[in-house]
Amino acid sequence: MDGVIYLDNAATSYPKPEEVHDFMGSFYRTCGVNPGRSGCDMALQAEEMIRETRQALSRFFNPSLSASGAGKDPDRLVFTINATHALNMVLRGTLREGDHVVTTWMEHNSVIRPVNHLVRDHGVQASFLRPDPDGRLDPEEIRRAIQPNTRLVMVNHASNVTGVVQDIHAIGSVCAEAGVPFAVDTAQTAGVLPIDMAECHISFLCFTGHKGLMGPTGTGGVCVADDAQVASSVWGGTGVKSAHPFHLDEYPYRLEAGTLNLLGIAGLHAGQAWIGKRGLAAIHAHEMELCGLLLEGLSGIRGVRVIGPRTTDWRVATVSLTVEGYDPSDVGTILDVDHNIITRTGLQCAPLAHDHMGTSPRGTVRLSIGPFTTREEILAAVRALDAIARSGRARAAAQTGGLR
Q1: Is the pTM of this model over 0.70?
Q2: Domains of the chain, residue spans
Q3: Which of 20, 266, 332, 359 could anchor a disulfide with 354, C-beta 3.0 to 4.6 Å?
């Protein structure tokens, strides 16, 4: 990867901290056995690492409870293989025939598709709410959309297309007043922005491990509030009470079945330690400083259109754009082949967001900044996009001259 500029952190963070690689390798070499399935020392150490990771993530997502001393039941931090799995688990575990769910046009397919399946196949009703031109949702729209049979409101914290951040504190307050559980997709914000489940009245916080949390792919989970309930949808071995004929109701077993991803959870454990050492505020400040530099540079390029917010307010460091005269996929190829810059093009698995932003069906070029992105890399990306835009203008001028 020498010389490559990686600007696709919204897909997965890269590189990972060396501490993550080191801990995963050393832990798996010494304790890579099945946790909770025997009483040997290695199995007990593996189970202890998992318990510590549950506790760390529970505190991470519930800082006000931790500060007050009330604490959060760490067993309600349940591990999954990714955020998609967690979101499906919540949707399928809370909605039944005749129930109503409220969500938005800014969602990822990990919400859109399971909601559509529940509507088509299981008699669930759904409302998809449209945000403002920048992609921000008015919390009062949530209030107006809630019906007597509404059983869930599900909103993504930040768009993976435009980076726009929703006011989950205000939305959560609306849900709490209406007595409706509130689920948040934090795939783009866990490890990037501070999130407090208690203060935001979040019933289900779904997260992925391989982005801002600095873990490996194949990790994620859902943190279930102490007063929320979700039905189990996966059944099997738990390592405890094996004679019981049905899956256990208590957490975390209620939502976990089979052997956990020990190596992946070890990566999450090390990622939590790295975030704690560096500081969430410092990580966010670094990313937003570079986002501001990117937005400033793009504003001076004729033919480049930024999709969504043009400032660093109410956003994460994910920027989508189009270049006049080019298909987004072609821009991505030129950035990769000619400039060694990795981006993401197309619809980014969020077709309704692109419909709303007017960028369907071809989508955008997405640049997403991470903790290891540098100022020099952002300036190089701006120069590359400027060169592509100038080339497009020259090509258009030549074509116009030829017609004359």
Answers
A1: yes
A2: 5-13+279-403, 18-278
A3: 359
